[in-house]
Amino acid sequence: MLLRAGPIAALLLVASAYPPASAADERQSGQATAERVRDLQDLLDLDDPDLLPYPSEGDAGRRSAIARALSWLASKQSPSEGSIEVGDAEPDQRAPLAVTSLATLAWISGGSTLTRGEYQGNIRRAVDYLLACTHRSADEHVGYIEDRGDPISRTHGHGLATLALAQAYTVSPSTPVGRRIGETLELAVRRIETSQGGEGGWYYAPTRSIEHEGSVTVALVQALRAANDVGIRVDPDGVASAVDYVKRLQVMRAEEAEASAKADAEDAATSTDRQRARQVLGGFRYGLNDPKTSVALTAAGLATLQAAGVYTGAQIDEGYDYIWRQLAIRGEDGSTEASPFPFYERFYLSQALWHHRDTRHYRRWAEPIMRDIVATQSESGSWPDVRITPSGRTLVNRFGSAYATACNVLFLALPDDTLPIFHR
Q1: In this structure, how many other beta carbons lie within 10 angstroms of the beta carbon of residue 56?
Q2: Rg (CA), the chain
Q3: Does 129 have pLDDT greater than 80?
Q4: Are 365 and 328 contacting, i.e. CB atoms less than 8 angstroms apart?
Q5: Where would a tag sit more exposed on the chain, N or C end, judged by fewer CB atoms within 10 A?
Q6: Is 38 a residue whose pLDDT tops 80?
Q7: Is there a contact between 93 and 399 (Cβ–Cβ < 8 Å)?
Q8: H or E element in which residue 395 lies
Q9: What counts of helices (H) and strands (E) characterise the chain?
């Protein structure tokens, strides 16, 4: 299997790793490896003959769901501004910049580009909106992509917008629109680079900060990878520092696991501490000073390492194992939709598992979810944004149906391998 890795990815293969392990650490690592093999044998039935190959012949339901959803997204685009309507989201959670970026990625994943396909006009209008949102030379934060009426998207939105512009950059830079995209990507990348913190991560504002957070960092690293792939100069030292930051988010030592376990369940009984510590090994934390782990951020961490060309090794194996253990725990207690951020989680988990060298990992996880998503699509072609809070409360349309629909399209369309960031 050939896995794509650009020039930056080659440099990042030698990015800084963890400190040398002690003899005790090595013994613990060996024990963990043996446990990992046993765990996976128990958790996965990868030889199930009902697993379908991807992309598969005759999956008309999935393709029909994508087509209906893309049409619905097009109906929600402003003909004049190019942004996506997000009016059904909670008033203080409306993020038109991020949602328009996701919709643009969805139309591209469906096979359209700026110059061809059913949704080329929608992509052109969305790109014009993103270009118009970019701070230029007279603004305070040059290169920052921001809808000034959108206080929610922030640097997450900047990362998604940069990613969308890079994925849409399929026209010649000598054309008017190609020149504008190229110039904007240059500015957007410089903004990312100048706002990187000393620890290697980023935070919510487009300026350098002593604060940092994992989910923002992975979004901006993916944006840099996409920009690099279309020929925009990206500083490899900055990316290497960011990848090292993401690596340091991962729980790989016993003492880190114990701290994360206590953070995840502070009222845990002492007798279960060791078991809980084992459960969080391999997980990625929200920040260097925030020990809580999650499937969503672990998947995002793996996707970031893969974007940097790292597809194998102890960190990758432990990350996958953490994910499968946590998904198994959800299945055992019936909380199959336990994530408070299900769409974010699926966006990155689908990418992380898609790039696993054994495609059965992706298929084992994705196929039942795809069937459920296709079955729950509304007649209009959309999906509501439904999520379960940690307390068990159901929230509907926190970020809106356009957000949920665009994310579901990206999940359903991934096996078609159309969007460049999804290429195996």
Answers
A1: 11
A2: 21
A3: yes
A4: no
A5: N
A6: no
A7: yes
A8: strand 394-396
A9: 16, 4
Closest by CA position to 129, among listed 89, 152, 157, 155: 157
Token pair listed for 36: 């990992």
44: left (phi over 0), alpha (psi -120 to 50) or beta: beta
Helix axis angle, 254-264 to 273-280, nearest 10°: 100
- Give the chain's length: 424
380 close to 72: Cβ distance less than 8 angstroms: yes
- At what angle are helices 295-307 and 342-354 packed, to 10 degrees? 40
Q: How far apart are CA 297 and CA 219, in angstroms?
A: 11
Beta strands in 29-165 (DSSP E): none
Residue-wise pLDDT for 373-387, tens only, equals 999 999 999 999 998
Structure tokens at 261: 């376990």
- Mapped onto helix, strand or coil, the DSSP state of residue 268 is coil
Question: 20 preceded by cis ω (within 30°)?
Answer: no
CA distance 258 to 262: 6
The answer to whether 300 and 218 have CB atoms below 8 angstroms apart is: yes
Contact 60, 370 (CB under 8 A): no
Strand partners, 77: 84
Three-class SS of residue 65? helix
Is 299:355 a contact under the CB 8 Å cutoff? no
Cβ neighbours of 46 (radius 10 Å): 14
Strand partners, 213: 202
Alpha helices in 110-197 (DSSP H): 120-132, 154-168, 176-194
**What are phi and psi for residue 104, nearest 5 degrees?**
-60, -45
Most confident of 30-34, 53-57, 378-382: 378-382
